[in-house]
Amino acid sequence: MEIKISEITKKFGKKQILNGVSLTIEPNRIYGLLGRNGAGKSTLLNIITDRIFANDGTVTIDGVSTHEHDELLGKIYLMSEVNLYQKRVRLQELFKASKIMYGGFDETYAKHLCEAFELNPKLRFGQLSTGYRTIFKLIIALCLPVDYVFLDEPILGLDANHRELFYKELLDTYSSHPRTFVISTHMIEEIANMIEHVFVLENGKILVDDDVDHMLSQAYVITGPGETVDQYTEGLNIIGTESLGNLKGNYVFGSLNDDREIPDTVQISRMDLQKLFIHLTSGGGTGK
Amino acid sequence: MEIKISEITKKFGKKQILNGVSLTIEPNRIYGLLGRNGAGKSTLLNIITDRIFANDGTVTIDGVSTHEHDELLGKIYLMSEVNLYQKRVRLQELFKASKIMYGGFDETYAKHLCEAFELNPKLRFGQLSTGYRTIFKLIIALCLPVDYVFLDEPILGLDANHRELFYKELLDTYSSHPRTFVISTHMIEEIANMIEHVFVLENGKILVDDDVDHMLSQAYVITGPGETVDQYTEGLNIIGTESLGNLKGNYVFGSLNDDREIPDTVQISRMDLQKLFIHLTSGGGTGK
What we know:
The structure is a homodimer.
Chain A: E1 3-12, E2 15-25, E3 30-35, H1 41-48, E4 56-61, E5 64-65, E6 76-79, H2 91-102, H3 107-116, H4 130-143, E7 148-152, H5 160-176, E8 180-184, H6 188-191, E9 197-202, E10 205-211, H7 212-216, E11 219-225, H8 226-232, E12 238-244, E13 247-253, E14 267-270, H9 273-280
Parallel strand pairs in A: 3-8, 3-9, 6-7, 7-8
Antiparallel strand pairs in A: 1-2, 1-4, 4-5, 9-10, 11-13, 11-14, 12-13
Helix pairs in contact in A: 3-4
Protein name (chains A, B): ABC superfamily ATP binding cassette transporter, ABC protein
Keywords (chains A, B): ATP-binding, Nucleotide-binding
GO molecular function (chains A, B): ATP binding; ATP hydrolysis activity
């Protein structure tokens, strides 16, 4: 069972948000969906989960359109920044309502998560701080019997301890009960160890669709005296550069030239995922 | 010129938010103000900048109470999550208004920052996304002629590229024109290299008031086979523990026992600031 997104386009007014996006989401994997502010990540997630309509293109599960067969949407859950809950309702009632809507809900696990995060399920949704609203929505997302969980900025307002607890719980529930998670976040380094595959959206198009290991295996920082570094990296795919006095670092994505001898004063090291992302997408923001 | 906070207490209703907080903020330093959600960080910043009143205690600049001499508040700026601006007003007008209120504003630097962040100053405040509202408020904070800049969660909604640009600009403006920055954030690892001194608030009290280097010099992770690790760390100040199969890691804060021989199977390594914070404050959240 896989989700196939084909040639999705979306405009808001005159503004092209998504421009021919195609990708495949496979069962039982953890994906990262990365992109600058305004790149179209939330729009794409809303289209996949049929909350908004695309102008063109299709979303299918095993070849069947989710838009035409909305029982398929019961396999998918999107946790987003939008608060869908009535403020006066108690959390434990919202758990019950979720169970009714999705035909199941892991109450034992929800109880465990409430205890771990020290969230009292007798509180009303409106009483929660930003951080605890996020935690509540994460609990819903982790306890529903769906095959695909989409998490749009799942750590908004969470302090460092709660973020670490969430990452741990996600990996625990994933290994005891494999399903697919697609995580969209700006905190790239923190999720880098969890995700196997990454999609990078830029200006409404897919810029990267690759396994994390494969991506990182082609990402190098070449440092040393400016001239020597420039000489050594000539002709390579330089995606960014930094300098510090006479020293220079060129960020290279792609293969190095193995015939070229490495000068003694030059060092080659690896890039982490966040740095790689920054340099791949440094074309700039979207203005607003 | 230093800011002295003495024995500040604050209650909201029956809830004690701050409980006898004392600390000193010196000129031309970069501080981190850390704490779990609900620890009282924003309340403390609002009291220092006289936006709300304390129930008890004083805030003085060189011995003079800021509450009684509000011309001193012109030396201090707080950038917070609250949006104080009218949505229909253009950013360039808001820059002018800030200049009038604070008796100065670095227009050249504001222009540079708008270009670097690709923010069009002709836009109206209401047209900006969450991320760009944060960027606009950061520009104000960096361009005002104040001696103390307090930044409450300054990276809310910023993508990785914009966060990196902000850290770079903050260090640039700090070195060309030294003043004090107090940064309150949950993204501890990202600011760890910038801050010299850290305050950790927990349950309304100061838990740590220390230089970052000194703190980290006392923070160790001892890993190896569970029993050996426990034996070696017996009697030390263990602030956390993790396990992986038969292996165990004990997080120690304080001095190691130098008389004890280090077993061959045991490794001692350093902790980063975020891990140290997590283990120091793992008593739990505040419920909401």
